[in-house]
Design a protein that fits this description.
heterodimer; A: about 425 residues; Urease, subunit C, domain 1; 2 domains; 8-stranded mixed sheet; 14 helices; 18 strands; globular; B: about 1000 residues; alpha/beta; TIM Barrel; Lipocalin; about 25% helix
C-alpha cells in the first residue's frame, strides 16, 4: 500500500491528496521534545487532526479516507533551515546566479521573497532529506534586508511564501578587524572603529524609531521598512559571534526594546547563556560543523555548543550558514545529529531544527511540530533522520499535500545506473 | 727571536703608509704614534679579563694589552678609571646604509610571467646573486650611531630581499665623514626563502621558493661546468662568491630544517639567520650541527587588561613570549654555535636590557660576549683580526661607563674603531644623588634625586620650620648636569600665579655641594647653594643569576603541545568489534594485540604479557584501522599552491610540512591517522604531495612516511583555466580545456626528450664525449611519471576532461593513478575501470561552481559498483575530522554496504596511495594505526575513544579534558605573569590577531585564503 502510494505521488507531486489520511505504526517525533513510539498521525486536508499512541487508542477505520501503514518508520515535522541563501543562489561561483547581496549599507527595504527561486535545483536536493522550509536570508551591508520564510514545494514565490518579511538582518560590527586580503594578509587586530560603527548603527535605529513614532513622517522607503521591527511581529536578526559583540547586542536589544530580537551566529554564546536567557534573546547557532575558532579551545567545542546553550536554558535552533550553505542545507539533519552525539537528547536535537526555529521566526502556530491543528507538514523516514546512514525519506507532506521524494540527482543516478546495467 | 720579529714588524708598521692616500685640505694633522688606554676594566676576549688593565694602540691595532704595562713616553694617554672596555661587537644581520633603487614600473594587476631584467641575467628576478651591497652602500650616520651605542663596531650589511640575495659588505661602524669605513666589500653571500621585491608570478609559495633555489643551484653547477655559448651575469657573479660564507635568512625554526636539506643536497652549508624560536626545534637543530645567528628582539608582553581580547591570544604566542628570552640559553646548552644579532632592536637600552635578560636566565656573561664578538668574527672568517683585543688585532672596542653586563645604568661613552676614538656620550664623572637642602636667602627646600646619572629625576619639597620636607608640597623639577655645570629649573607658584626659576651653578667633584646664581622673576639676582644631607640608598644592581621560573617548551609549542614526544606501547584491545576490512569482515568480541608499532596478533582470548602490555577493554566498542584522508591541505606552511606557472612539477609539499598546525591534533580527535597533503589546483601540473602520519609532537621529517611512493597533483577545469579569478587573470596559458590538454602533451614530450638526454649521457662514456645535461627539476619529475615512478592524483570535475587526461596518459604509456573530486566520475566509471584509475571524491558537495552542476551524491556508489576503487576525502580541515560521517553517506546515497562504505576512508585510500601493504585494514603485520570508536563508526553517534599510530596513542578521550585544562592553566599562569610584568613597568602591546588560514585546493599565495566555494 504505502509503496504504491509513494510511487504514485512521485509522478505527480502535489496534485493528489486525500481528505483524511491516517498514518499508523510509525514512531512520532513530535518536535516539541516529545516522542510517541508506535503512534497514530491523522490529517484532514491541510491540518493535523490526530496525534496519539497506537497502543492505547482504538480507531474507527471507516472515518479515514486512507490509512497508510508506515510501521517501523519515523515521522518528523518538517525540518526548518534558517539563515540561508538557498533559493537566492544556484551556483556560488557564477555571479549571474547570486541574488542575495545588493549595494548599500542600510538596506532594510530589500526583500528576498521576490527573488526566491521556487524552481531551484539546489532546493530540490535539500527537501528530499527532510528539510522542507527555508528562511531565504539576504547578506551584506549593515542591514542586509528582510528575509522571508519559504516552502521548498511551490510553483512560484507566492505559493512558496510561509511568512513574508519575517525579519530584518543586521550585521553587528566586528569588534576585531583586519586580515588583509589573500595576497597581502595583515594581522587582525582590535577594531578601533568599533565604537563609531556601533554608534552609526544605533543612530540608524534611533532615526527609524523616530520615523515610526512620527505621525506625519516624510516618506522614506528604508525607514518605512523598519516599522514592524519596533511594533509588529517582525524579528530583528542580529548577526554576531564574538563575546564582546554579544554583550553589546544584549544591551542594544534591551535598550531598543524590540519585541522579537534574535541573535544569529553566537559562536561565543555558550559563555553568556544565562544572560541570553534572562534577556530572552534566542540564538540561531552558527554551523556546528566547524572548527574551533581559537587554537586552545576544545576540539569538539562547536559540536557541544548546542548542548551548552540547552543546559543554560537558551532558546536556540541549529543552522548551517557558511561556506556552500545552500547546497549544504540538506545536511541540516546531520548537524542536529552531531549535536545529539555530543549531548542533546534525540528529541532535543529534532526540536532544534523543527519547533525551535519556527518559534524563533514566529511560524510555530502552524509549523514545527506534529500537534493537532498545525499544518500537516511532515515527512516519513525509514530510519533515524538525524543519522546519514539511516536518513531515508519515503514520504513528504506539505500542508497536507503529498510531495515528491525524488530529485534530479536521483534521476541522473538512475539514468547512469541503467546505462551500466545494460551492458 | 720573538722579540726581534715583533720589533721588525713594529718598525715596518710605523714606516708603512697606513691610512689614507686622499689629499688633505690644510696642514696634515699630527698624531701620537702610540695611544694608551689605562686603568680600565678590560674584557680581552671571552676567556680573558683585566679588572685594571691597559692597552697600547699603534697604527689601529693592539700593540700590547695587560695588567701592568709600561706606558712609553710620548704616548697619548687616556685614563679610563672605573670604566669598562669591551671588544667591538659584530652585527651580521643588517641592512644599514643599503639604499634600494626604486623601480619605476607602471602598476599592473595582470600577472608578470617573465623576468623584466632582460636576458643577461637569471630568468627569475628573485635570484640575483649579482646584487653587490657595497655598490648600494652609503653611510647612514644615525643608524651607525645607534649600533655604536649598543657596542657594535662592525656590521655586515646586505640587501635583504630575494631568494639568492647577493653579497654583503663588512663595515667598520665609523660614522664620520672623513674615512672610508668598508673593511671588505664582499664578506658573505645571502640567501632566503622569501621572494622579496620581485613581481614575477613565480614563485608564489614557500615550496616554490625552495624549488627555485634548488633549481638555481643546479643551474649554477651546470653553468660552471659546461661550455655554454652565452653569458649569464647572475651566474658569473655567483661564481665569484664561491669562497664566501653563506648566510640564510629564516623566519621560523622549521625554515632552518628546510634550508638544511638544500645545503645537504648541494654539499654546502649555511649559517642561519634565525628568527628567535629555534628553541622549539632543539633536537633536530642539534643534529644539524649548524651555526645560527639569533635575534634577541623578544616579543613584548600583551596588554591583557581586556579579557575579551586577551582570550583571543593563542597560547602559542603567550608561550613564545615567556620562552623567547631562553632561546640563547637553550641553544648554548645544546652546544649549538650561536651568535647574537641586535636586529629588530632600535635602542641600546632595549638591547642591553635583553642581553641582561639572557644573563638572568642563567647564561654566563662571557658566553654572551663571545656570541657578540668571537663567534660572529669566526662566522665571517675574521677571527684573526676582530672579536678579541689581543695583540695585533684591530683596536676596535667600546668604552662603557661601567660593566653593561651587570649594571643597568651602564652607557657606551665612546667607541674606538681601528684605534680612532669616537665620542658617543660624555662620561659623567660627577654623581649627583640622594637628598639635598636647597638654601636660598629667604627660604629652604629639599631636593630629592632618583634614577640613574643619565636620567636623573628630581623632586622639590617645601620645608617646615625644622627644615624637614613636607611631603604634600612635592613638585617636579628639571635638572641637567653637564661636566660640573648644573642647571635646575623649578616650577613654582605664589599668590600672583605660576612662575619658573632657573638656577645655574657648579657642583663639587664629589657631588656633595652645589652653588650658583638665580635670576628671579623680577630680574634681580640671588645666590643659592645645595648641600647633600642624605646619600641615596645603594641600589642593588647585581643581577641575580638564578634562573627565572618559567614554563617548559611544548612540542609543538602551541595548545595541546606535548612535554616530549609520545612513546610507543604494547597494547591489547580486548573484546572489540573489529572492522577488519579483510575477508573476515566485521567480527565481534575479538582481541587485537599491538607490539613494536605493528598489529601482532588478532584472536579471541589472546594471551599476553600482562606486565608489559597495556590493556584496553574495548567491550561494546568498535576498533578500525585509522582513517586515511587522500586529499588534505592541513599542516602546510606558506602556500598550498604554486600558481606562478602552469607546470610546477618541481615543487613539493613535503618541503613545507608544518608540524605546528593544531589541526593535526584536531584530525586525530576525528580518527584520522594518515593524510596526503596535496598541492592545490591552481595549475595543470601542481606539485608533489606529502604523505604523513599525524604524529602530533614530532617534527616534519618524522611525520613523513618513509619509503612512501611519490605522488603529484594535477588539475583540470575551472581552477587551472583561472575561470573564477577575475578579469585580470587572462594571461597565463591555458585559459580553456583545450589549452589544458596541450600543456600536458607539451610537458610530457619535453620530459621524454629530457629523459632520453640523461639516459644517453649515463649510458655512454659518462662525461667524456657528451657533456652532462642540465638538471631540470620540473622535467625530471614529469619523467618520473613516464617511468611509472611517480603517480598522479588529478583534481577533476567534468567527464570530458577526465576522459582527456586518460587519453593523454594512454598515449604516453602510463596510467593516471587517482582522480580526486571526480564529481562526474559516475558518467564514465566504465572507462575509469578500464584505465585502472581510482576515484577520491566528496560525499555530497556540489553547486559551488559551474563544473559541479551535475555532481551527485550517488557518485561514489556508482563508481564503486562499476569496479572503481573509491575513496572519500575531505579537502577541508573541518570535514577531515568527520570523514566517518561522510563515508556513511555512501550507505544513504546508493545503498553501499557498511563495510564497503567504511573502506572508502580506510582501505581504499590506502590502495590509492599504494600503502595498502602497510595500512588500511586490521591485519597481522600491518602498521598499528588503529581507532577505537564508542559506536559503529558510520553512526552519527560514533566518537573517537583512542587514535593510535604505529602503536603510539596520539589521542585519548580519557586525557582530553586534562589536555584542555592544561591549556587553560598554562594560559592563566602566563597571563598572570604578563600582568605582573606590566606592573613592573615593562612595555606591553595590544594583541593583533592573525586569522587562522585554512587551505583549500584553490588557496593562493603564501597565506591561504578561504575564497568561497571554489574547491
Amino acid at each position: 500500500m504505502r509503496f504504491y502510494l509513494g510511487f504514485f505521488f512521485l509522478l505527480v507531486p502535489g496534485l493528489i491528496f486525500s481528505q483524511k489520511i491516517l498514518f499508523k505504526g510509525a514512531d512520532l517525533h513530535i518536535g516539541n521534545g516529545e516522542f510517541i513510539e508506535n503512534g497514530l498521525l491523522g490529517i484532514d486536508g491541510d491540518r493535523i487532526v490526530l496525534v496519539k499512541k497506537a497502543l492505547i487508542s482504538s480507531i474507527n477505520e471507516n472515518k479515514w479516507d486512507s490509512i497508510i501503514d508506515v510501521s517501523g518508520a519515523q515521522i518528523y515535522p518538517a525540518f526548518v533551515n534558517t539563515n540561508n541563501t538557498l533559493g537566492l543562489t544556484e551556483i556560488d561561483a557564477v555571479r549571474a546566479t547570486r541574488d542575495f547581496d545588493d549595494v548599500g549599507a542600510f538596506n532594510p527595504h530589500l526583500r528576498t521573497q521576490i527573488a526566491f527561486n521556487a524552481e531551484s535545483k539546489v532546493g530540490e536536493t535539500v527537501r528530499t532529506n527532510g528539510v522542507m522550509i527555508t528562511q531565504a536570508t539576504p547578506r551584506g551591508g549593515i542591514i542586509s534586508g528582510a528575509s522571508s520564510v519559504m516552502s521548498l514545494f511551490a510553483w512560484n514565490w507566492e505559493d512558496a511564501t510561509v511568512l513574508a518579511d519575517d525579519g530584518i538582518h543586521v550585521n553587528w560590527p566586528s569588534s576585531t578587524v583586519g586580515g588583509g586580503w589573500w595576497a597581502e594578509p595583515k594581522p587582525k587586530s582590535r577594531n578601533k572603529e568599533y565604537s563609531a560603527q556601533k554608534a552609526e548603527l544605533r543612530s540608524f535605529f534611533d532615526m527609524s524609531k523616530a520615523y515610526c513614532e512620527s505621525k506625519k513622517p516624510k516618506f522614506d522607503q528604508r525607514l518605512e521598512a523598519m516599522k514592524k521591527c519596533f511594533s509588529g511581529n517582525q524579528r530583528v536578526y542580529i548577526h554576531a559571534n564574538e563575546l564582546q559583540q554579544i554583550h553589546d547586542v544584549i544591551d542594544f536589544v534591551t535598550e531598543m526594546n524590540f519585541p522579537f530580537p534574535v541573535l544569529v551566529g553566537g559562536y561565543d554564546a555558550h559563555l553568556v547563556g544565562r544572560k541570553l536567557k534572562d534577556a530572552k534573546l534566542p540564538v540561531m547557532l552558527k554551523r556546528i560543523h566547524g572548527l574551533p575558532q581559537l587554537e586552545g579551545e576544545a576540539t569538539d567545542l562547536p559540536y557541544k555548543s548546542a548542548t551548552l546553550l540547552s543546559e543554560q536554558g537558551v532558546l536556540f535552533c541549529l543552522q548551517g550558514a557558511g561556506d556552500m550553505e545552500a547546497m549544504n542545507a540538506r545536511n541540516l539533519p546531520f548537524i542536529a545529529g552531531t549535536s545529539m552525539a555530543y549531548g542533546l537528547t534525540e528529541e532535543q536535537a529534532v526540536e532544534s531544527i523543527s519547533l525551535s526555529p519556527c518559534k524563533i521566526m514566529g511560524i510555530d502556530k502552524d509549523y514545527g511540530s506534529l500537534e493537532i491543528d498545525k499544518k500537516a507538514t511532515f515527512f516519513v523516514s525509514r530510519g533515524n533522520a538525524l543519522d546519514m546512514m539511516t536518513n531515508k525519506v519515503t514520504m513528504i507532506y506539505f500542508d497536507g499535500k503529498s510531495e515528491s521524494t525524488s530529485n534530479f540527482q536521483e534521476a541522473l543516478y538512475l539514468k547512469y545506473k541503467a546505462k551500466y546495467s545494460e551492458r | 727571536m720573538k722579540l726581534i720579529t715583533a720589533l721588525v714588524s713594529f718598525l715596518l708598521m710605523t714606516v708603512s703608509t697606513f691610512g689614507q692616500y686622499k689629499p688633505q685640505n690644510g696642514v696634515a694633522t699630527s698624531k701620537s704614534e702610540i695611544t694608551a688606554i689605562t686603568n680600565a676594566h678590560i674584557y680581552v676576549s671571552s676567556t680573558q679579563e683585566f679588572k685594571n688593565g691597559s692597552i697600547l694602540i699603534n697604527e689601529g691595532k693592539v700593540l700590547k694589552i695587560g695588567k701592568k704595562i709600561k706606558i712609553p713616553k710620548g704616548a697619548n694617554v687616556f685614563d679610563l678609571q672605573g670604566r669598562t672596555v669591551l671588544p667591538a661587537f659584530i652585527e651580521l644581520n643588517s641592512n644599514i646604509g643599503i639604499v634600494k633603487q626604486k623601480k619605476e614600473s607602471p602598476r599592473s594587476y595582470r600577472p608578470q610571467i617573465e623576468s623584466n631584467k632582460g636576458s643577461s641575467f637569471y630568468w627569475n628576478e628573485a635570484v640575483h646573486p649579482e646584487v653587490d651591497a657595497s655598490l648600494m652602500y652609503s653611510k647612514n650616520k644615525a643608524a651607525i650611531k645607534e649600533i655604536n651605542q649598543k657596542g657594535f663596531g662592525f656590521f655586515v650589511s646586505h640587501s635583504n630581499e630575494g631568494i639568492v640575495r647577493g653579497t654583503g659588505l663588512l663595515v667598520s661602524a665609523n660614522g664620520d665623514n672623513l674615512s672610508s669605513d668598508i673593511v671588505s666589500p664582499k664578506i658573505a653571500s645571502y640567501f632566503s626563502l622569501s621572494k622579496g621585491d620581485s613581481k614575477q608570478s613565480y614563485p608564489s609559495s614557500q615550496m616554490g621558493s625552495i624549488a627555485l633555489l634548488r633549481q638555481s643551484f643546479y643551474d649554477f653547477q651546470y653553468y660552471s661546468k659546461s661550455d655554454l655559448n652565452f653569458t649569464d651575469l647572475s651566474m658569473e657573479a655567483w661564481k665569484s662568491q664561491m669562497q664566501l660564507p653563506r648566510f640564510f635568512q629564516t623566519a621560523d625554526k622549521l625554515e632552518i630544517l628546510r634550508a638544511s636539506k638544500i645545503a645537504n643536497e648541494f654539499n654546502s652549508s649555511f649559517i642561519y639567520l634565525g628568527s628567535g624560536n629555534e628553541y622549539e626545534a632543539i633536537d633536530p637543530l642539534k643534529k644539524l650541527n649548524s651555526k645560527i645567528v639569533v635575534p634577541i628582539n623578544f616579543p613584548d608582553a600583551y596588554d591583557v587588561s581586556d579579557p575579551y581580547i586577551s582570550r583571543l591570544i593563542p597560547l602559542s604566542q603567550l608561550k613564545h613570549w615567556e620562552l623567547a628570552p631562553l632561546n640563547f640559553k637553550i641553544l648554548k646548552e645544546n652546544n649549538i654555535e650561536v651568535a647574537i644579532s641586535s636586529s629588530g632592536l632600535k635602542s641600546a637600552d632595549q638591547f642591553w636590557k635583553n642581553i641582561r635578560l639572557i644573563i638572568q636566565s642563567g647564561v654566563d656573561k662571557t658566553d654572551v660576549l663571545k656570541a657578540l664578538t668571537e663567534t660572529p668574527a669566526s662566522f665571517i672568517e675574521q677571527g684573526e683580526s676582530m672579536g678579541r683585543l689581543e695583540k695585533d688585532m684591530l683596536a676596535s672596542f667600546t668604552v662603557f661607563s661601567s660593566d653593561p653586563f651587570t649594571d643597568k645604568n651602564a652607557k657606551a661613552n665612546e667607541i674606538w674603531l681601528k684605534g680612532e676614538r669616537k665620542s658617543l656620550e660624555p662620561f659623567q664623572e660627577i654623581e649627583v644623588k640622594g637628598s639635598y637642602h636647597l638654601n636660598r636667602p629667604n627660604n629652604r627646600f629639599v631636593l630629592e634625586f632618583s634614577g640613574s646619572t643619565q636620567r636623573l629625576k628630581v623632586s622639590l619639597f617645601d620645608t617646615d620650620l625644622d627644615g624637614n620636607k613636607v611631603d604634600s608640597t612635592k613638585t617636579k623639577a628639571a635638572f641637567k648636569l653637564d661636566g660640573n655645570d648644573v642647571t635646575l629649573t623649578l616650577k613654582r607658584a605664589d599668590t600672583t600665579g605660576k612662575f619658573a626659576e632657573v638656577l645655574h651653578g657648579k657642583v663639587t667633584p664629589n657631588g656633595a655641594v652645589m652653588e650658583g646664581d638665580i635670576v628671579l622673576k623680577d630680574g634681580t639676582w640671588e645666590k643659592w647653594s645645595a648641600i647633600r644631607f642624605l646619600d641615596s640608598e645603594k641600589e642593588d644592581l647585581d643581577i641575580k643569576t638564578q634562573a627565572i621560573q618559567t614554563g617548559k617548551c611544548w612540542f609543538p609549542n602551541v595548545s595541546y603541545g606535548l612535554d616530549s614526544a609520545l612513546q610507543q606501547e604494547s597494547i591489547i584491545f580486548t573484546n572489540a568489534t573489529i572492522w577488519t576490512n579483510e575477508a573476515e569482515g566485521i567480527v565481534n568480541e575479538m582481541d587485537v594485540l599491538v607490539e613494536n608499532g605493528k598489529i601482532s596478533r588478532i584472536g579471541k582470548g589472546l594471551r599476553f604479557d600482562s606486565e608489559n602490555v597495556k590493556v584496553i577493554d574495548a567491550s561494546g566498542m568498535h576498533l578500525t584501522s585509522g582513517i586515511i584522508d587522500e586529499h588534505s591541505h592541513i599542516a602546510i606552511s606558506k602556500g598550498v599552491n604554486e600558481s606562478g606557472q602552469a607546470i610546477s612539477a618541481e615543487v613539493s609539499i613535503a618541503d613545507v610540512v608544518n608540524s605546528d598546525d593544531v589541526n593535526i591534533y584536531r584530525q586525530l580527535a576525528g580518527g584520522v591517522t594518515c593524510s596526503q597533503l596535496l598541492h592545490g589546483s591552481a595549475s595543470p601540473v601542481g606539485g608533489q604531495s606529502a604523505i604523513v602520519k599525524l604524529k602530533w609532537g614530532e617534527f616534519p621529517e618524522n611525520m613523513l612516511i618513509q619509503n612512501a611512493p611519490g605522488f603529484i597533483k594535477f588539475a583540470l577545469g575551472e581552477n587551472v583555466k583561472q575561470s573564477n579569478w577575475g578579469n585580470f587573470n587572462t594571461v597565463r596559458f591555458p585559459q580553456t580545456r583545450m589549452g589544458v590538454e596541450q600543456v600536458f602533451y607539451d610537458g610530457f614530450h619535453r620530459a621524454r626528450i629530457y629523459n632520453q638526454e640523461w639516459e644517453n649521457y649515463l649510458k655512454k662514456n659518462k662525461g667524456k664525449s657528451i657533456s652532462e645535461p642540465r638538471v631540470d627539476l620540473e622535467l625530471q619529475t614529469l619523467a618520473e611519471i613516464l617511468k611509472k615512478e611517480r603517480f598522479i592524483t588529478c583534481h577533476s570535475y567534468v567527464q570530458s576532461e577526465i576522459n582527456m587526461l586518460m587519453h593523454v596518459a594512454d598515449s604516453m604509456g602510463f596510467r593516471v593513478n587517482t582522480f580526486t573530486h571526480i564529481l562526474e566520475g559516475y558518467k564514465l566509471a566504465d572507462k575509469m575501470r578500464e584505465h585502472g584509475v581510482g576515484g577520491s571524491t566528496f560525499s555530497d558537495w556540489w553547486a559551488y561552481k559551474y563544473e559541479v552542476n551535475d555532481a551527485i551524491p550517488y557518485n561514489a556508489s556508482l563508481m564503486h559498483d562499476n569496479g572503481v576503487v573509491v575513496a572519500i576525502n575531505s579537502d577541508d580541515a573541518e570535514m577531515g575530522r568527520r570523514l566517518n560521517q561522510e563515508a556513511a553517506k555512501g550507505v544513504k546515497y546508493g545503498g553501499m554496504s557498511q563495510e564497503d562504505a567504511w573502506k572508502m576512508v580506510t582501505l581504499n585510500p590506502a590502495k590509492l596511495l599504494h600503502l595498502d601493504d602497510r595500512m588500511g585494514s586490521v591485519k597481522v603485520g600491518k602498521d598499528a594505526d588503529l581507532v577505537l570508536w564508542t559506536d559503529n563508526p558510520l553512526s552519527i553517534m560514533a566518537k573517537v575513544s583512542k587514535t593510535i599510530i604505529d602503536g603510539t596513542i596520539y589521542f585519548d578521550s580519557d586525557r582530553k579534558t586534562a589536555m584542555e585544562n592544561r591549556n587553560i592553566e598554562e594560559r592563566a599562569r602566563i597571563i598572570q605573569k604578563m600582568i605582573l610584568n606590566r606592573e613592573a613597568g615593562n612595555p606591553v602591546k595590544k594583541y593583533e590577531h592573525k586569522k587562522e588560514k585554512f587551505y583549500h585546493c584553490d588557496s593562493f599565495g603564501e597565506e591561504g585564503e578561504t575564497s568561497t566555494n571554489t574547491h
